[in-house]
TrEMBL record, chains A, B:
SUPFAM superfamilies: HAD-like
Any single GO BP term: pyrimidine deoxyribonucleotide catabolic process
Residues forming the catalytic site: D2 (proton donor)
Protein name per its UniProtKB record: 5'(3')-deoxyribonucleotidase
Origin species: Mucilaginibacter limnophilus
Top-rank taxon, per record: Bacteria
C-alpha cells in the first residue's frame, strides 16, 4: 500500500510543511528514507505522527492507481498486501481507506502482515526486502528510497504498470 | 487462530448459556457449524455477538497451545495466519490477544487476511477450504464442523501437534 497505492511520502511532506514550517521536495532524497532528509532535531517526530490514530485514513491515492488496479482486478486475481502489523492502530484505517478508494477489492483479497510471505505470481512493491524470499515476478515500484536499485524490473507510474500487465 | 489457538466455540457456548439460558455441549454438533445447533429464532444473534468490539479479546486459549507453539517457534519459523479481515474490528483485539498469550511471536510473523494465500511449508488449520490452493503439508486440527472429513492428516490436540512436529 504505502508508496505504491498510497502516497505516504506526500502526506509526510504535507505534515512537515504544516507543523514544522520546513520545505521538503520529493526530489530532495534520492536513495534516502524520508526520515533521513528531516533535520535531526525533529527526526523522532516521524514515528509519532505515523502512530497517530487515523494517520493512514486520509493519505492521497497514488496518481493513476485506481483505474489501473480496477483493470488488473478484471484480468487477474489481485491481492492488496500491506505490512500493516508494525503499527497496530493502522489496520482499521487502512481497511477503511481501501474500502473507500478500491471498493471492488473484496475483504477476501486483503492481507495485513509483517513479512510478506504471500504465494502469488507477481509482486509489485517498493521495498526490495519483500522480494528476497519471493520466487515470482518482482516489479519494483519507484520510490525515492529505491532509486539506486538496479536489480529488478522497474515501474515508475501506474500508467507503466498498466502497459506492462494489461 | 479461531478453533486452533483460540477456543472460539468455547466462548460461543458461554455466551449462549449466559444470555439465552440454553445448554449446548461441545459434542452436540458433530459435522455442524456452531450456528446450525442454535435454535433458529436466535441464530441471527451469532453474527451480532462476533461483531461486538472486543469479542476476540478474551477468548480462552486452546488447551496446551502455548507451550507447544513456544517449542515450535524455537524449531521452525512460525507464522500465525488468521482470516480476520471479515470482521474489521477484530484485528486490534486479535493482535492484542496474540501479544498477551503468545508474546514470543513477533509482529513480523502475524498475518491477517481473507484468503490464506501464504507461502509456507506446513499449515495447521481447522478449515478444509484453506487447504484447497495450498501445496504444502496440510494438518487438519479437529473441530466439530470438520469431524466428518477424512482426506487429511489430522490432529485432535496440541499435544498431538507436538508429537508430530517436535
Amino acid at each position: 500500500m504505502d508508496e505504491v497505492l498510497a502516497d505516504t511520502i506526500g502526506k509526510f511532506i504535507t505534515i512537515y510543511e504544516q507543523r514544522h514550517n520546513t520545505k521538503i521536495g520529493i526530489n530532495d532524497f534520492p536513495g534516502k528514507e524520508f526520515n533521513e532528509v528531516l533535520p535531526e532535531e525533529i527526526r523522532h517526530t516521524l514515528r509519532e505522527y505515523i502512530n497517530e490514530p487515523g494517520f493512514f485514513r486520509d493519505i492521497p491515492v497514488m496518481e493513476g492507481a485506481i483505474p489501473v488496479v480496477q483493470q488488473l482486478h478484471e484480468k487477474y486475481d489481485v491481492y492488496i498486501v500491506s505490512a500493516a502489523m508494525e503499527f497496530k492502530y493502522s489496520m482499521t484505517a487502512k481497511l477503511e481507506w481501501l474500502n473507500e478508494h478500491f471498493p471492488f477489492i473484496s475483504w477476501t483479497n486483503i492481507v495485513f502482515c509483517g513479512h510478506k510471505i504471500v504465494d502469488v505470481d507477481i509482486m509489485i512493491d517498493d521495498r526490495v526486502k519483500n522480494f528476497i524470499n519471493f520466487g515470482g515476478r518482482k516489479i519494483l515500484f519507484t520510490s525515492p528510497h529505491n532509486l539506486a536499485v538496479c536489480d529488478y524490473e522497474r515501474v515508475n507510474t501506474w500508467e507503466e504498470v498498466g502497459k506492462l500487465l494489461l
